Amino acid sequence: MSQPCSIEADQLVYRYPDGRLALDNVSLKIAPGERLGIIGASGAGKSTFLLHLNGVLLPNSGLVRIGGEPVVRANLQNIRSRVGIVFQNPDDQLFTPTVEEDVAFGPLNMGGTPGETRERVQVALHQMRLDGYEKRSTHDLSFGEKRRVALATVLAMRPRVIAFDEPFANLDPGMVEQLIHIIQGLEATVVLISQEILPAVAAVDTLAVFHQGHIAATGPALEIASDRALLQRCGIDFHYYAGVWEKILNRPSVT
Ligand SMILES: Nc1ncnc2c1ncn2[C@@H]1O[C@H](COP(=O)(O)OP(=O)(O)OP(=O)(O)O)[C@@H](O)[C@H]1O
Ligand SMILES: [Mg+2]
After folding, report:
1. Tens digits of per-residue pLDDT, 99-123?
2. Nearest-angstrom CA–CA distance, 117 and 196
3. pLDDT tens for residues 181-208?
4. In this model, does residue 179 exceed pLDDT 90?
5. What's the rounded Cα separation, in Å, for the pair 5 and 188?
6. Residue 161: its pLDDT value, please?
7. What ranges do the domains of the chain cover?
8. pLDDT in tens, 220-238
């Protein structure tokens, strides 16, 4: 099993070709094996940041290092063997006709034998509760099922760094719980973007709050999640749900 890697992002600036400034001097250090969550309003720059971790996007200035290795064009093959990204949209991840082929693609591409690959595919499909889906056409799956296949494609590669872009979206509650346990048990450095703050808090150690292309705060997950003024300032206050929870919890149990 390969060791988790550190991630260092130093003063990243990224403008999309139309001129929009999406990352405005973003610096972050993530220790090997740490699990960092990224929260922030829609459009804050979260996905743009994630796409810099394996060089899908390269910064206009600044640098990312993975385990000390710079993410630069000449080094991308090496970087991509270390960093797996689960994209926000599963259609960006899945491109072969069947579920089995999609999940096998990464391990085979990294030089895995057919036997090793089969074992990895089976484990990853089982983790994502996709046993029996092997021959299904990915095209025909529901959106939540596609998201689970996309997660399985990256889990099967067992990379040293796994970056998840909204992994809880479209998952049912049982699957959310299972995924939190899987993430907690990964021998990898984890970066996890989530608009759903509660599962993120359950899954990670630290949180970074993105706001309009920069980092507004980082700290222990519980500390950040309880700083209501910060969350309000950044447009992601979720404490409204506390009232809903109270109503549910204060009712006598039906069972
Ligand atoms: N291809 C693109 N061309 C131009 N602007 C873009 C492009 N992709 C994203 N942007 C802009 O860059 C900013 C950051 O986008 P990004 O996708 O990183 O946000 P996000 O925090 O992931 O949001 P969400 O929670 O909605 O996924 C936004 O203002 C967005 O409109
Ligand atoms: Mg996004």
Report:
1. 999 999 999 998 999 999 999 999 9
2. 33
3. 999 999 999 999 999 999 999 999 999 9
4. yes
5. 7
6. 97
7. 7-91+158-249
8. 999 999 999 999 999 999 9
pTM listed for this prediction? 0.94
Ligand 1 contacts CB of residue 19 (under 6 A): no
**Residue 208 structure tokens:** 């970074």
pLDDT at 255 over 80: no
Q: Tell me how far apart the alpha carbons of residues 203 and 191 are, in angstroms, rounded to a whole number.
A: 10
Collect residues with CB below 5 Å from ion ligand 2: 47, 88
Residue owning the nearest CA to atom 12 of ligand 1: 22
Binding site membership of 48 for ligand 1 (Cβ less than 6 Å):
yes
Architecture of domain 7-91+158-249: 3-Layer(aba) Sandwich (3.40)
Ligand nearest to the CA of 17: 1
45 C-alpha vs ligand 1 centroid, how far in Å?
6
pLDDT bracket for residue 248 (50, 70, 90)? very high
